[in-house]
Design a protein that fits this description.
By secondary structure, the protein is of the alpha/beta class. Helices cover about 30% and strands about 25% of the residues. The chain has helices at about 50-55, 80-85, 100-110, 145-150, 165-180, 195-210, 220-225, 245-250, 250-260; strands spanning about 10-20, 20-35, 35-40, 65-70, 70, 85-90, 185, 215, 230-235, 240-245. The strands form two sheets. A six-stranded mixed beta sheet has the order 6-7-8-3-9-10, sandwiched between helices. About 40% of the residues are buried.
Length: about 260
């Protein structure tokens, strides 16, 4: 797709992260546009997750800059960047296992409730009396509709710890959507899934693409080529190719460094 400049939601320029003498990410730039899935691939140790952690604010930059929705968020803490419109999922599923699917999404929505001041007395109120509506900037739908969008309506009252791994991954996406993001960072959302679960996740990500800019880190190459509008390949902390999936697939350097290996790790 050809992205318009007005659709640019996140621009990360020359990101670098040193751990001692090791450059885990070295001078990497990436732009994320609404309506586009930008996938990042590479072997283990390539710097993919470190890049995601830098963009989200979970790791401090050694150098570089990040602009989100036109605002310079370089050096901001992760929670402040999140409130500016960035949501992320993690390699390890991050949900409240003792709570129901509904309560997980409701709690995520309450984190963005402007009517809940950071006052200690708020914690003594009944959370179930809080509004159920989640006013998102892009889809403006209720918590129930977010659950339905993520194909979990039949599991709404199930305890999160009792649902399948794939459903827990869908729930994590639902919780992320409830925080009203415009930019989504998805770190291996298909990890550990069977074929049917992976197909449901791919369908969900296709659905979300229209209203969001998305950065996808994923090892499942079939999913990557089914989803990605743009593909960046990292090796040893550096970008060796960044182009359309078809051009990247044909790149000799990529074939030698990654796609041509017998085992994709």
């Amino acid at each position: 797709m050809t992205a318009l400049s007005t659709d640019l939601l996140l621009s990360a320029k020359n990101l670098t992260k040193h751990f001692g003498g090791l450059a885990a990410v070295n001078n990497v730039s990436i732009d994320l546009y609404r309506g586009q899935i930008h996938a990042v691939i590479g072997p283990n140790g390539a710097g993919k997750s470190t890049l995601t952690n830098l963009v989200s604010g979970d790791l401090a930059l050694t150098s570089g800059s990040i602009h989100l929705n036109g605002l310079d968020v370089t050096g901001w803490r992760a929670e402040k960047i999140s409130k500016q419109g960035l949501g992320r999922s993690f390699q390890k599923t991050n949900v409240f296992l003792p709570l129901s699917v509904w309560d997980n999404v409701r709690l995520a929505a309450q984190s963005r409730d402007s009517h809940q001041p950071w006052n200690p007395l708020v914690w003594f109120k009944n959370a179930h009396n809080a509004t159920n509506l989640v006013a998102t900037k892009t889809i403006n739908i209720s918590a129930e509709a977010i659950i339905a969008l993520c194909k979990l309506e039949n599991r709404m009252h199930a305890i999160a710890g009792t649902i399948s791994h794939g459903e827990q991954r869908q729930l994590e996406i639902a919780m992320t959507l409830a925080t009203q993001p415009q930019v989504l960072l998805l770190d291996e959302p298909l990890a550990g899934m069977g074929v049917a679960e992976a197909e449901r996740m791919i369908e969900l990500l296709h659905t979300l693409k229209k209203d969001h800019a998305m950065l996808l880190v994923e090892h499942d190459m079939d999913a990557v080529f089914a989803l990605a509008d743009k593909l960046t390949v990292m090796v040893n902390g550096q970008v060796i190719a960044s182009d359309s999936p078809s051009n990247v697939r044909a790149d000799a350097k990529v074939q030698a460094a990654y796609l041509g290996e017998e085992e994709h790790v």
